[in-house]
């Protein structure tokens, strides 16, 4: 689009949305100062959303201030995730006859816990930044990042609240509860009497649903939707190539989920539930 076309669009938008612009947006053009007209369309509530001012200096700060309530809500969700991780989950009854499916070996994670936020948050944000460097659209970067974080943290709250409420033992629960291999049960109730480390046992009651799976599907699922929009997936041009790009993040999320079953940290139902419950928040 030429500078003249940009200028004409800017004049049209300023007359519609009651905003002011200056010549630094249009290199090679003399300085202009367009007076704001009275806004007649009551449905227009936020001039920051208008494309003509998306790259103005200070737009990042103005966007943040305008969406301050959203960021406060996001901070609240993050605090809830921390609290839900601190409290002890429900200790579901585990009898001796149930141990047949809970005696898988206790082994390290193929995908470490620290890698989950990198996969679910930092990789998508890096791609958002790459699009920003190309388009210089600060509004798109802000909204994409905010939407991603909401999807991930809402999913985190739902996942951790469900983990704490259900208290399903992991497939390796026996070795968490009895690290020396000597099982001890209550003579009256038949429930386990664990003598392992508290933190390890606590984690052993958090099998359902899979947090690795839900977090990665939330972040990478959001990224897939973002890429589908940016690549104009359904515009009739290059469907196969675009589909490959769009579904790559979902494939990565699926592999993370499968690793949880291979590591014996989750039952297959946990992984399926983790992938399923994220769909409403991701969309």
UniProtKB/TrEMBL annotation:
Keywords noted in UniProt: Hydrolase, Membrane, Transmembrane, Transmembrane helix
Keyword Transmembrane set for record: yes
Principal location class: membrane
Segments passing through the bilayer: 71-90, 110-134, 141-159, 212-228, 240-258
Keyword Membrane: yes
Residue ranges of domain Phosphatidic acid phosphatase type 2/haloperoxidase in the record: 145-279
Entry GO MF terms: phosphatidate phosphatase activity
Annotated localization: Membrane
Membrane topology, from the record: Multi-pass membrane protein
Any one biological process term the GO annotation gives: phospholipid metabolic process
Domain of life: Eukaryota
CDD domains: PAP2_containing_1_like
UniProt-listed SUPFAM superfamilies: Acid phosphatase/Vanadium-dependent haloperoxidase (SSF48317)
GO CC, alphabetical: membrane
Family recorded in the similarity comment: Belongs to the PA-phosphatase related phosphoesterase family.
UniProt-listed PANTHER family: LIPID PHOSPHATE PHOSPHATASE, RE23632P
Protein known as: Phosphatidic acid phosphatase type 2/haloperoxidase domain-containing protein
Lineage, highest ranks first: Eukaryota, Viridiplantae, Streptophyta, Embryophyta, Tracheophyta
